[in-house]
Amino acid sequence: xxxxxxxxxxxxxxxxxxxxANLESFLMRHTFSNTVIHETxxxxxxxLGIRSIVLYDSPPEINTSxxxxxxxxxxxxxxxxxxxxxxxxxxxxxxxxxxxxxxVTGKWKTPIKHPRVKYLGFLPRExxxxxxxxxxxxxxxxxxxxxxxxxxxxEFAAAGIPFVINETPVTxxxxxxFLAKNIAQVAEKLEMMxxxxxxxxxxxxxxxxxxVLKGKNKEGLEKxxxxxxx
Length: 230
What we know:
The protein is α/β, with parallel strands linked by helices. It has two domains: 6-55, no CATH class; 73-213, Rossmann fold (3-Layer(aba) Sandwich), CATH 3.40.50. The chain contains eight helices and eight strands; from the N terminus they run ααβαββαββαβαββαα. It has helices at residues 6-9, 15-29, 39-47, 87-96, 125-133, 152-159, 183-192, 196-223; strands spanning 35-36, 53-54, 73-78, 100-105, 117-121, 137-140, 163-166, 179-180. Strands 5-4-3-6-7-8 form a six-stranded parallel β-sheet, with helices on both faces. A two-stranded parallel ribbon has the order 1-2. Helix 6 links the parallel strand 6 and strand 7. The radius of gyration is 19 Å and the shape is globular. The two termini are 19 Å apart. It comes from Methanosuratincola subterraneus.
């Protein structure tokens, strides 16, 4: 069973979610194996007496050979329409950092209210990769659900793009350089990326992070049990 923590996270929202959480728990206790997407959720399940294997996504294969040095502070912010995405926070950051250009792809649920924010919508894969590789940094702001580990972080790592994301128990896996506790810290970290020497150090860190995430994926795959033969 592949567990994504949906029902348990929403138990406080009413009877239906509590019923689904109980069903979810029953199924997890009676399956041959459970997989989860990060260590934090595995620890939560362990506290409930449920065993699980952590199986990270692996960074996708992205050809970065054509990527050119980006001098301007062009930041890409891919969205998927998830309720955890902090769109208001994106607008706040755009209002703080001078010379910032925010390129938003995906599903934008709020009218654009800032001249530094450009919305491109959902893009074909090749166009999206071009936008990703022509950005100096990535931005991923989330709120509410602290169990979220956005897949876009794996894309940033694969593309060699430094980024900023909110700090939660889950996102700490990416390392302190890419984490921010609040909007002010997000703005500060993006401002620091204007310094070429500091930016070069972040590029090295994100390359190392890509290898860490690949290693976590490999480790999880090696722990998956084989289904018993009948």
